[in-house]
Amino acid sequence: MSEPIVFEPIAMERVWGGRRFESVLGKTIPAGTPIGELWEVVDRDDAQSIVHAGKWRGKSLHELWSDERAEVFGDEYLASPAPRFPLLVKLLDARERLSVQVHPPLEMADSLGGEPKTEAWYFLDALPGACIFAGLKHGVTREDFEIALRTGGVERTLHEIKVSTGESIFIPSGRLHAIGEGNLIVEIQQNSDTTYRVFDWNRMGLDGTPRALHIAESLASIDFADFEPSTCPAEKREIADCPFFHVEKVDLIAPRDIRPGGCFALVAVTGGEVVCGGKTFGRGRFFIVPAEGDGLEIAPADGAAEVLVTTLPA
To answer: Is the four-CA dihedral 101, 107, 230, 188 of positive or negative sign?
Structure first.
């Protein structure tokens, strides 16, 4: 029987995390700790998505990518040189603002000992007044930024953007950024865990000491010509289209097959409930619709629903 593939989320404790995965999305998370991230789809040495139930129950995402690639992901990807599934998909809960950080661009990553990371954020639930920081204010130079680092004035150099539920933003490698408090975010990114913190608001880590900063690596990675990017409005359908992934917002009012021809689709439910393969998925739930299998349309459970559909370039 054809069925969607559902993984067990992996909870990550973070000093800036909260409890909104539980209170807003009804997810089960470890008690008594600030959970900042749920890794929903991941294939890494140190973190591995495991199938929750069904035909592939107990198999890892890495096993599916390595051994079941044609059936699960599609013949289009059989020739892919990627040794692991190329995406990492997370939920983020920012009870406090995150550090000011940057991910290394492709041309710098190897020399810095890291992995490039381009990502897209979808604001699943933004509290009133929530904001992010992305890029620099117009006219800020590298020299200005380095002086601000030394004098404690980093915030004055950053481009601050107020955000609302349903909006999104693209964060290419090299873009300086920080997530503000009050944001619940779907993050779709390259399969990378390299983050360079350049400023952390003088905050202590979970162990009571200042968290490590990566000043030299950050300065080498920051795009100092990246000024005042904007968010995409909630009505925009295309969330991201880049060499690493395509993300589209889809309104469901009737059953439909959201897979591109012969390929898989990764679905995140962002509004209402959907039904796929006899299973119901509510807001904040993720699943893969495998490439092979009939009867895998997704449909709104009650009138209408909204999903993000992520696919890989062929």
So the answer is: negative
Q: Is residue 20 annotated as a catalytic residue, yes or no? A: no
Q: Are residues 170 and 243 in the same domain?
A: no
d(CA 33, CA 19): 8
38 and 180 assigned to the same domain: yes
Kindly tell me the burial class for residue 24, based on how many C-beta atoms sit within 10 Å of its own C-beta (0-12, 13-18, 19 or more): middle
Tokens standing for 122?
Answer: 């979808």
- Residue 119 belongs to what domain range? 10-221
Q: How far apart are the C-alpha atoms of 138 and 92, rounded to whole Å?
A: 28
Same domain (yes/no): 80, 53:
yes
Q: The CATH number of the domain where 153 resides is what?
A: 2.60.120.10
State the catalytic residue, choosing from 20, 197, 259, 285: 197
| Residue 283 token pair | 């807001």
pLDDT in tens, 92-117: 999 999 999 999 999 999 999 999 99
Query: For the whole model, what pTM was predicted?
Result: 0.96
Instruction: Please state the domain count of the chain.
Output: 2
